[in-house]
Amino acid sequence: MRRPAKRVTSADVARAAGVSAATVSYVLNDTPGQSIPEETRRRVLEAVKQLDYRPRGSARALAAGRSDVVLLSIPHLSIGPGINRFVEQFATSLAHAGLTLVTHLAGAPGRPLPDVCAAIDASVVASLDPLDDDTAQALRRAGADLVFTTEVEAHPTMRRMGRLQAEHLIALGHRRLGYAMPDHPLLRKIADDRLLGVADACAHAGIDPPLALDTKLDTTALARAARRWRRESVTAVCAYNDEVAIALLTGMRHAKLAAPDDLAVIGADDIPLAQVTDPPLSTIAFDLEKVGRSLAEAVVASLSGRKPRLTPASLSPRVIHRAST
Amino acid sequence: MRRPAKRVTSADVARAAGVSAATVSYVLNDTPGQSIPEETRRRVLEAVKQLDYRPRGSARALAAGRSDVVLLSIPHLSIGPGINRFVEQFATSLAHAGLTLVTHLAGAPGRPLPDVCAAIDASVVASLDPLDDDTAQALRRAGADLVFTTEVEAHPTMRRMGRLQAEHLIALGHRRLGYAMPDHPLLRKIADDRLLGVADACAHAGIDPPLALDTKLDTTALARAARRWRRESVTAVCAYNDEVAIALLTGMRHAKLAAPDDLAVIGADDIPLAQVTDPPLSTIAFDLEKVGRSLAEAVVASLSGRKPRLTPASLSPRVIHRAST
DNA sequence: GTAGGTTACTGATGCGCTTAAGTAACGAGC
DNA sequence: GCTCGTTACTTAAGCGCATCAGTAACCTAC
Questions:
Q1: If you measure CA to C1', which residue is closest to nucleotide D12?
Q2: Architecture of domain A64-153+288-311 in this structure
Q3: DSSP secondary structure string, B70-107?
Q4: What is the pLDDT of residue A153?
Q5: For residues B275 and B263, what is the distance between their CA atoms, to the nearest angstrom?
Q6: Domains of chain B: which residue ranges?
Q7: Does domain B64-154+288-310 bear CATH number 1.10.10.10?
């Protein structure tokens, strides 16, 4: 592997601007306590633009002892397309603070998070849900701060979503609930959390625990599941997510069952398609943009030594009531 | 911002193993031309494990002049959940070659790709579709190799997808096609490409160009669009993607139109839900795992100085024929 | 008029690693 | 018995930047 061609360095900029490399660094970083006259600043910035100079992150990180890179670990499988809006807002908010976001698909067999973190020398690792202890410790040893959307004390987000689904159905008068589990083994952990939330709500309302059925994205199988729930006098189903819920709706049509009269269905995530199903799907939505913004604040806080203080209900999930319930 | 606590360095490992830092580096990198007896190697690796040492990417990159980080730029909005499978496979294949993958959501107002690239000092930037010239040049100046899924000469993937959709419908005997455009302005460019592909196929078959209609994810609006196509004697519609197609199916049901008899519908992306619509949706699928693997190969090739040689039809889109056409 | 402060810089150092160059110890070959 | 080659290392340089410790020039105050 050849060494890449010579790149523009701060020394080049310094030469072009007729100053020292230190001055270039001061100008570019607005280093507090340094007084740079307007004229010099202009010359330096001019040279930067002329040469299309971009400081190398690795050199900066090495010299400064910390980088401006934030690593976001996102769950193995998408939490729906909304994740994009979240990431975008997060990246934008971080950029305002001079930080750079890159993301890593967690759980993949590719490479453990601490390795990735060390490789890019991230100074903060953010995640939507808490990481396991070993990983967290390894990351901290690798020099990264950790930031999550959920406070440790609060109910984990996933569990809360399940609770909201169930509470909605119970409020509508349903007394026996079903739960539609996803088939993908990697979704199992999240699904179990959400199911626990449903069980919480049932227990709290003093009704039977939910009847959970494994499902797959297959119309016939879901038609069967729907009939099974009916037989067991289930009147409403919480689906793991909108995808499962939509598939269930199709399965029900095949079984000649209609939502919400024969079986009420609520999804989770509020994917765009949830508005255009037949009937439109009730679901749980997050304000992901807000989450992105507040997570960015937490990162900045953590970086300046303050305890990241998150809003109580960071993900703020809420019920979207449409025609399927 | 306090300097983070002292982290484990290669000097610490060297001390623990009773060797010099150079030896540690030789062991960890399997540096060719260095003979390390088994016993020494064992001692070093032992110390590494004991201390949970992870080399800092920034220091490595700085010293070696190149990092082992690959940056994947993914389009602004998800190309469906399949993107996950692709990223995963890509990351795994890269990991086998000792490379680390991180991704960046392109197009977001956050921070331009070259800045991100410089910040993490990526040595390769991969992208699903070609980047504009300015960006490409800036990246190259930032010292990154560029790798794409599409060869420059080949038809851009997006255009090809549109062509496949149309060819499928034409082969089924349709003589007047519609095209359902997405409403999101950021999708416009991709949509235009796909539409061009449809137009190509129509021209090639000697039939009228497609009647493109703007749509949004709204059942009523789509019912109206469906009726409009019918009035204009369109018998089959290519949808921008499966999402639009599924919404159209719902709109058609509201307009008392059935697929494929009243209007055939084909989507694109083969999202999981496409199997469970009513009727199941014909669509265009990619072999994303294969793409991930071959893109990783291209990256490795590019890094070892060879020209990245991609398989002719890297994304290899193909028609999935279900009941909606 | 000069001590003391401020402004506007520069020089030197070191971050943690890779790598070229060096070296001590040992065995083989003559 | 001495050289040469090999093995198994070590030493030192330097990657590109941030940052600390200067310092020269100029200004102010008394």
A1: B22
A2: 3-Layer(aba) Sandwich (3.40)
A3: EEEEE-SS-S-THHHHHHHHHHHHHHHTT-EEEEEETT
A4: 42
A5: 18
A6: 10-55, 64-154+288-310, 157-286
A7: no
- Out of A226-235, B1-10, B184-193, B205-214, least confident range: B1-10
For chain B, what's the residue count? 325
Q: How far is CA A54 from CA A87, A100, B42, B147, in A?
A: 24, 14, 41, 21
A217 touches B242 (CB < 8 A): no
Kindly report which listed range (A138-147, A166-175, B203-212) carries the lowest average pLDDT score: A138-147
Q: What is the pLDDT of residues A55-79, one digit of tens each?
A: 999 999 999 999 999 999 987 665 5
Near-strand D residues (CB closer than 7 A): A 6-7, 9-11, 21-22, 24-26, 28-29, 31, 53, 55-56, 59-60, 62-64; B 18-23, 26, 34-37, 39-40, 62-63, 65
Q: Is A288 in contact with A108 (CB distance < 8 Å)?
A: no
Is the pLDDT at A289 greater than 80? The verdict is yes
CATH architecture under which domain B157-286 falls = 3-Layer(aba) Sandwich (3.40)
User: Taking residues A137-145, what's their average pLDDT?
Assistant: 91
- The alpha-carbon gap from B195 to the nearest alpha carbon of chain A, in Å, equals 22
CATH of B10-55, one of 3.20.20.80, 3.30.365.10, 1.10.260.40, 2.40.50.140: 1.10.260.40
